[in-house]
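Example record

The entry below shows one chain as it appears in the dataset: sequence first, then structure tokens.
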Amino acid sequence: MKKSILLLAMAVIATGILISCGDGGEDPAPSLEITTITATVGDVTRTGVVDVEAQTVVFQPFAPRTDLSAVTIDVTLPEGVTVTPETGAAQDFTSGAVVYTISNGTEEMSFEVSVTSEFAASIAFVGDANAPGSITERDMSTAYEYLSGEFGEDLEYIPFSSINSDALQYIEVVVYYQDSDPGNNPGLLECIPSSAQAASVVSAFQDWHANGGHFVLAGHGTQYLNQLGRIPDDGGKPYAENGWAPRIYGSGDGFENPDQWGINANLNVAELETVSTADWNRSTHPILEGCSTSDVANPEEGTTYNHPIIPMIAAGYKEDHNSMWDLNAAPIIDHVDAFDKADKWEAAMEATLIGTWGHVVDLCCGAVIELHARSSAPNEGSIIALGAAAYEWEQNGGDNAFMTNNAAMTVNSINYLIEK
């Protein structure tokens, strides 16, 4: 009996030892969580905020214009937890969030990781008025209202009094359209307001332009090339006598006119004989995309230009505010013909002629041009100059039937420069 009791006790002890040795089974899986996660671009690092319930990770936005195509994501995890994509790898966030999945070998959890940059307008419409609602000149105010509607929050108004390096920091294109009201007829040297000629403003624009900032200069705004230093020297002559300057200029009150005005972009449409080998048909330049054409000169009389033009202002009242180039005035004497001279003009100005007056077939003048970065300043931005008198956004308080061409030309110019 005692022997049986002893054997039973030994069996119970052995069973207890076996149970004790096997108690708990396998080690529990590590906690499925993200300890820390960071995003790094260049020398700037942001720490993410992990929301387990929403399964998202967000970061404080990076500065505007930050390149988000190669953001390094570093993830710290509990031992035994893995992450895909792997930690330390660069990710492209330009198209939105990237999904990161963590796993402990038993279960997994996915997080939408979002890396963004702050928003900043890339286009500035600049002027003398303290606010866009204070622009009194009707063409200028109409242009601003249209462009503001077209580009939304990506376009902001900046008065000249607020121009400095900080204001221009994230701007890619500055639109400066200057015109004058009836009764205010400034001369060539007076059309640019004093606020735009202030030394600090000119210096800020020059520095910004030298570092890749682009301009669209329209109307009398083409004269701002003087302040920007983009007009070549003409033997020391003053600006008003400089043959390289846009000296075809008008600022009168205007008059009634029965014709349709515009620009001719096929610069040798008459196929005049020339030694120039350049392709003078500039009608495919990107800033002219979508512009309608017509050969009508006087719709009432039925006369034509004998070639297509891009009409920009309809029959009726015209201000006639040219601010463009007379190629015949340029100090170029070693040329064979008008187009050979235009070749040399483009080389000296480091520019491309895009359009002339609608009726002109011998390229005596330049109404629309693109100034490229100069060879002496390769990081410099480009400039589109729209100087034809036909560039009007309204007609004597009424609609301009061809305003859509002016709008297309301006919008195209902005987009073309942003994409450069």
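Notes for this example: Confidence is low (pLDDT under 50) at residues 1-24. Residues 258 and 279 are 33 Å apart (CA to CA).
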